[in-house]
Write a structure and sequence with these properties.
The protein is built from four helices and four strands. Helix 2 links the parallel strand 1 and strand 2.
Length: about 120
């Protein structure tokens, strides 16, 4: 079975978060911060929730019923995505605004094009 790019990215981030938990047994429970994953479409959000479980907070950008091809993110949408540890989008053809948004934000965290590797 081959993992998708989103699956691999989520597994790596979750594993990193879990490995950091055991470094200081005396650290207060409050120091554990969940990973934040920003997704553009509901199927990506649903998949991320299934993979990450309770190790991450998954945020869906597009509201229900919105056309993903012509969506224009609002400033508050861009702020929310800029705070994510990982952003998952479908691809530049489905969501051209996502590529522009990520470039505008100079997003330096992990970005996953969920269509990568699909023929």
């Amino acid at each position: 079975m081959q993992l998708t790019p989103i699956g691999l990215a989520l597994i790596r981030l979750c594993a990193g978060a879990l490995s950091c938990q055991g470094k200081d047994a005396r650290a207060p429970e409050q120091s554990h911060r969940k990973l934040t994953v920003g997704t553009t479409l509901f199927p990506l959000c649903d998949f991320a929730r299934a993979v990450a479980g309770d190790q991450a907070e998954i945020r869906l950008l597009l509201p229900p019923g919105v056309e993903p091809h012509s969506f224009e993110p609002k400033p508050e949408d861009m702020v929310r995505m800029s705070k994510a540890d990982l952003v998952v989008y479908t691809n530049e053809y489905m969501e051209p605004w996502a590529v522009t948004m990520l470039q505008t934000l100079a997003f330096k965290e992990v970005v996953v094009d969920a269509s990568e590797g699909i023929a």
